[in-house]
Amino acid sequence: MFPPSGRQALAVHGRLLDAEMLDWERRTFGCNPNLVLDRIARRPLNEAFALAYSSYYLYFAVPPLYFARAGRTRDLDRYALAVCTAQYACFLGFAALPLAGPIAALSSSFDPPRLAGYLAVPAQTWLMERADPPGTCFPSSHVAGAWAATLAAFPALPRPVAWTMTALTTALTASVVHCRYHYAVDAVAGLAVAHLAHRTARRYAGTARTS
Predict the structure, then answer these.
(1) Which of 18, 29, 54, 77 has its CA 20 to 30 A from that of 211?
(2) Which residue range forms the structural domain that includes residue 143?
(3) If you ran DSSP here, which 8-state letter would residue 157 be given?
(4) Across the chain, which distance is largest between two alpha carbons, in Å?
(5) pLDDT for 40-73, tens place per residue?
(6) What is the DSSP secondary structure assignment for residue 112, as one 8-state letter?
(7) 10 domain-assigned
(8) Residue 50 maps to a domain
């Protein structure tokens, strides 16, 4: 489903709008946040953020399995609706503002050109080069999906687990910018999408039962 969205993202504008995004970031922040984070890029930090970024895939398996095994169908329904709503909203955003992302748009400005790591960085890079089409940056589906999942699951999980999930999602949010996959604005837009998805799920899938 994700690879074809790259072609669909160009349906409205017919081109990528990274030049406009970079100009907007410079006028708004006085800099490009990706280049600021580039100054602190080190192998251990890169690896930690790559692991945080890769943890996104666990959101589609671990909480749903937990709710399913516990027979908590209402919590599972709410969780699934929140995550799916966030993802579909992101697909609409791809078409509204198609972006190739910082790796492509700022390739000549990054030093080093590619982030160095040990295992997680090259593995995630390999995956993104094959499964992440240009045009699918705004909003960040990682941020939107992860926060929609966290907000939906938080009231239904034991508190230590809920706060651990929140900390992991916070690290994931920072990782999308540090790893050069998204602009800072993509992450902020992902937070907004997650909030709307959470409200939608609460309304249509019922209120969470607390643990």
Answers:
(1) 54
(2) 32-205
(3) S
(4) 52
(5) 999 999 999 999 999 999 999 999 999 999 999 9
(6) S
(7) no
(8) yes
Q: Which helix (H) or strand (E) holds 62?
A: helix 62-69
* CA–CA distance, 27 with 22 (Å, rounded to integer): 9
CA 46, distance to chain mean position in Å, is 17
Residue 55's alpha-carbon distances to 7, 15, 31, 110, 161, in angstroms, are: 26, 31, 29, 25, 15
pLDDT exceeds 70 at position 208 = no
> Does 176 map to a domain?
yes
Q: Report pLDDT for 133.
A: 85
Q: Which amino acid is at 40?
A: I
Whole-number Å distance between alpha carbons of 46 and 156: 32
Q: How confident is the model at residue 168 (pLDDT cuts 50, 70, 90)?
A: very high
- Residue 106 near residue 32, CB atoms below 8 Å: yes
For 170, counting Cβ atoms within 10 Å of its Cβ (0-12 exposed, 13-18 middle, 19+ buried), the class is middle
Token match 């050109």: residue? Answer: 113
SS3 at position 153? helix
Q: Is the peptide bond before 155 cis (omega within 30 degrees of 0)?
A: no
**C-beta separation of 149 from 83 below 8 A:** yes
Query: Total domain count for the chain?
Result: 1
**Token pair 């909030």 is at which residue?**
195
